[in-house]
Design a protein that fits this description.
Length: about 350
Amino acid sequence: MRTYLVTGGAGFIGSNYIHYMFRKYGDEIRVINVDCLTYAGNLENLKGVEDRENYVFVKADIRDREAIEKIFAEYDVDRVVHFAAESHVDRSIRNPEIFVETNVLGTLVMLNAAKKAWETQDGGFLPDKKFLHVSTDEVYGSLEEGDTYFYETSPIDPHSPYSASKASSDMLVKAYIDTYKFPANITNCSNNYGPYQFPEKLIPLIINNALQGKKLPVYGDGKNVRDWLYVDDHAKAIDLVQEKGRLGERYNIGGHNEKQNIEIIHIILDTLQEMLPEGDPRKALVSRDLITYVEDRKGHDRRYAIAPDKIKEEIGWYPKTMFQEGIRLTIQWFFEHEEWMKHVTSGDYQKYYAEMYQA
């Protein structure tokens, strides 16, 4: 039974990845989910898998070397999938220090723990051990007018404390690959959306606010462009990189779904109107009149767009979910999980750990 150590598995992308892996592999794998349960870590994201005998949750901080080394000592870890990171740009502008501590120093702890557990006496590594570092397209900076896409060879040019911390962690992983021949890959993905996304992010924020008739804040002129990737497509890509990726390589994972922020909001509002049944009082609340332009974010990158050519050619992955389909799936999920949203927005989700693990 192959053992996967997933950091940040109670977060948005991490929890979707765990669900995907159990759907695909069932009892053939074991998952050790390590999460320190900050504001964005929600164990309610993992209802349905937490009773599995091949699933283990460990509450630990990736910056805690002793705790992480203990996990490696206790479990024969074959794969590390490293999601754990502070990831919200606005928060990084207000408090850069925690982003450096978690994203850079935390990644260093993970690398050292894996290296210590997997290294052989001759300086090589045990067979079939792999470390996958999950990163972002924001490390490449912003595309200017006339530019095409970000490629794996694009210069690293971060503009926010968040993207600078992720770029730093990418460079650490690359250094371990180059210096120690450490068995690792780096993936850089575009903006994810889908189930379990914390409602400070654009798409769940717009869905939640619109259903309540609240203002829909839009930075600047709303014409900043992002490439949107449905989270289940991302999970599949990560699995394929672990299975087929060439060690030491970086792979860009993009959605080929470029949209301006204001377009995203219009699509969400139109789709909500289509999907809400007649007679639902929320239908009258959903309106473009809720759109409110606010002062632009500091250092706001204008456009991100990723070319997933390399992962398609080498591994055979390509995004399957176009935005119109993905946004319908996402809205339907939120309709079916209203209690989840209530718990998240009220803060009650943070009680779940105590109820489940400290009872």
